[in-house]
Amino acid sequence: MTTPRAPELAAALRAAIKASPLSVRQLAINVGKSHTTLSQWSNGHRVPTVEDVRALLDHLVVADDEVARILALTEAANAPAGDRLVAGVTEAQARIMDNESRARRITEWSPDLVPGLLQTSDYARVILGDRPAAELHIPLALRAGRREVLTRADSPPEMLAIVGEDAIRSCIGSPTVRAHQLRHLLKVAELDNVTLRVVPRSNAFHSGLLGPFVIYEFDRDPSVVLLEHHRSSAFLYNEVHVADYQDAAEEIRQRAMSPEDTAELIAECIG
């Protein structure tokens, strides 16, 4: 199973190998591996051991800080699931939290619901469904913890949250829950690092009608797209696919209201 840091490791190795004056075949001979194995390491189809990466780095021209980063990625990618996860946290949730904690910028398109990072606990409780209180404790605590990434003191990520008008006008839970959620949106939209924009209802087709998505952009690692479904999540790392979603996000952004008009709409919905 691909671990949360394996794609980042593959991208780092790919860049280091590409910058080498030696061919992949020559590097493979130098480290005692087949060129196919090196290709699998650099495209993310196989996770190399720390020893393998150390041997490869000995034959590459890589700055010391990048060597340290690649080795740290290798250790993280090889960590057993039990070391990476806390009780009650799925592999997908761990990847999402890891992306949120490291992202420089988060762009989310959510046509029907308020984005997870902007949800109140009461709103999230409705979304999580009718479960016993004991089963809701961990997921609600996780969501509350995830929200803090936007207000942390040390380099919080920029977030562009684009939501459909239905996400604002729908009554998820009681009218009280809805009003509390909308007031929270107005408050969080005042943060310097958060931009909230609403896409008005329309009969015209646009890429956003194909479903919600999240794009995570990082300082050094390649961007990642998250697609969340009812019971599963998918992460896209392919550069072409990521670029397609970035284009879609831009198309949707151009259809959205300004942040000022968005705030007026939300205030109007609160009444």
Task: Give short descriptive properties of this protein.
single chain, elongated, Endonuclease, Chain A, 2 domains, 434 Repressor (Amino-terminal Domain), six-stranded mixed sheet, 271 residues, alpha/beta
Layout of strands and helices, then pairs:
Elements: H1 6-19, H2 24-31, H3 35-43, H4 50-57, H5 64-78, H6 81-84, H7 91-102, E1 105-110, H8 121-128, H9 133-147, E2 158-164, H10 165-169, H11 175-188, E3 194-199, E4 213-217, E5 224-228, E6 233-236, H12 239-255, H13 259-270
Parallel strand pairs: 1-2, 2-3
Antiparallel strand pairs: 1-4, 4-5, 5-6
Helix pairs in contact: 1-3, 1-5, 2-3, 4-5, 8-9, 11-13
Domain HTH cro/C1-type: 13-67
GO molecular function, one term: DNA binding
Organism: Saccharothrix texasensis
Overall spatial form: elongated
Rounded mean pLDDT is 90
Strand content: 5-15%
Q: Determine the CATH topology of the largest domain.
A: Endonuclease, Chain A
- Tell me the name of the CATH homologous superfamily of the largest domain: Endonuclease Chain A
Strand/helix succession: HHHHHHHEHHEHHEEEEHH
Proportion in helices:
40-55%
GO molecular function: DNA binding
Protein name: Helix-turn-helix protein
InterPro entries: Cro/C1-type_HTH, DUF5753, Lambda_DNA-bd_dom_sf
Domain HTH cro/C1-type: 13-67
Would you kindly provide a written description of the structure presented here, covering whatever features stand out?
It comes from Saccharothrix texasensis. Residues 13-67 form the HTH cro/C1-type domain. GO terms for molecular function: DNA binding. The structure is a single chain. The protein starts with 5 loop residues before the first helix and ends with a helix. Strand 4 (213-217) and strand 5 form a beta hairpin. It is elongated and about 70 Å long. With 271 residues, the chain is α/β, with parallel strands linked by helices. It has 13 helices and six strands. Helices cover 52% and strands 12% of the residues. It has helices at residues 6-19, 24-31, 35-43, 50-57, 64-78, 81-84, 91-102, 121-128, 133-147, 165-169, 175-188, 239-255, 259-270, and strands at residues 105-110, 158-164, 194-199, 213-217, 224-228, 233-236. Strands 3-2-1-4-5-6 form a six-stranded mixed beta sheet, with helices on both faces. The protein has two domains: 6-83, 434 Repressor (Amino-terminal Domain), CATH 1.10.260.40; 89-270, Endonuclease Chain A (Endonuclease, Chain A, 2-Layer Sandwich), CATH 3.30.870.
